[in-house]
Structure formats: C-alpha cells, structure tokens
Amino acid sequence: MYEYFIGKITDVTPYYIVINVGGVGYRVLVANPFRYTATNDDQKVYIYQAVRDNDISLYGFQTFDEKQLFIKLLSVSGIGPKSALAILANEDHSGLINAINTNNDKFLTKFPGIGKKTAQQIILDLKGKMKEITPANLVGQQALDVTPTDASPALRESLEALASLGYTKTDIKKVGKQLQNFAGKDTNEYLSQALHLLNNK
Questions:
Q1: 31-90 pLDDT, tens digit each
Q2: How many CB atoms lie within 10 A of CB 190?
Q3: Which of 87, 98, 152, 182 is deepest in the core (most CB within 10 A)?
C-alpha cells in the first residue's frame, strides 16, 4: 500500500494526472486534476490504492487530511471511489463536515449519485467521527455533446472534468451556459466556479 508519491507531474487531463516517480508514470485519479500543474519540480501526492477483482486504481490527494476524508467516505455503505471523488471536488470541506455533524442531508444530496438515503447513511456512519480532520488542510471518459461550440479550452476541460465526476449532461449543459460569461483565468477557476454553481442550485 502506498502512502504518497514524490515526483514530477507530467500530464494533467480532465480525468487524471500522471506523476513520474523514478522513471515510471503512474496514472492517478483525483477529485480536481486542475489543482495540479505539470512542472519539472517534484510534487508530493498522497495516494490511496484500490484493488478489485479486475482492476487496480490509484487515487491522489493534495493533503493527508483530504486522503483521510476520502477513506472515511469509502467506509459508508453505498459510497464508491467515484462518488467520494465527486464529493471531494467541492472544496468546501468544512461545509461537508459541518453538514454531516448537523444532519444536513440536503447539502449532501447536491453531489452526483447521492440520494437522500445515501446522504442519511453518510450522516449515520460519520457524524462525530472526523474530529482529527482539519478542513483547512483538507473513470472512464465519456464524450460530451453539451459543451458550447464557442467554449474556450479551459471551459471545455472543466466541463469534461464534471462529466468524469458523474454530473449529468443536463447539469453540465446548464452550467456550461452559465460559465460562458465567466472570466476565468484557467481550467481550475472554471471548474471551481462550476462546482460552486452546481452545489448552490
């Protein structure tokens, strides 16, 4: 089991990043790939390895606390890695923890694939069990036919990232229209704004 990798991030896609460690490129699934930057500098990525009958996947996190939050979400019945990543893509981790501790299932049902029953299960399983997590520290591709034809590369990548997180085409199409007048500097800003809009609809 891996704890973390230290290496150079060589590729950033809407679906994953690639980190080169000792000449080996590891494909790592992350909540928001555009938090990372492909540079020649070594970067530290915390790693969770998931082993299934026919698949071995690596999941990456910027902080130890974010990794621990992911692991706790996986402990909930009905929550798989994809759903956990979609929840973590929303950077309001303090809001997530507060929602769990205050029985706010409405906040949790805003995430893709999380219905009322699963939201209540998250609260039941995790309420009061995340005191050690500090919020401040805190797959397959699908073709999109919902991207505005005149979308910038950054907007297009952000909408592809939403698809990889499990958001519906209807939601992506709606938020894509809303973001056409958003003056984001890069894909990360577009994706952060998209998640903000989706989680406050």
A1: 889 889 898 999 999 999 998 888 899 999 999 989 999 999 999 988 999 889 988 887
A2: 28
A3: 87
Query: Of 199, 200, 194, nearest to 34 (Cα)?
Result: 194
Between the CA of residue 130 and those of 99, 143, 162, what are the distances in Å?
A: 12, 37, 27
Q: Into which CATH architecture does domain 64-126 fall?
A: Orthogonal Bundle (1.10)
- How many alpha carbons fall within 13 Å on the CB side of residue 39? 9
Phi, psi of 116 (to 5 degrees): -60, -40
The ranges assigned to domains in the chain are 4-61, 64-126, 153-198
Residue with tokens 């606390």: 65
Give 10-residue mean pLDDT values along the chain (201 residues). 94 93 96 89 94 89 92 92 88 82 90 90 91 60 44 82 82 86 87 87 65
What is the rounded distance in angstroms from the CA atom of residue 94 to the CA atom of residue 129? 14
pTM of the model: 0.68
Number of residues that this document lists for the chain: 201
Report the first-to-last Cα separation within the chain, whole angstroms: 39
Sign of torsion over alpha carbons 181, 182, 188, 193: negative
Write phi, then psi, for 146 (nearest 5 degrees).
Answer: -115, 0
User: What is 4-61's CATH number?
Assistant: 2.40.50.140
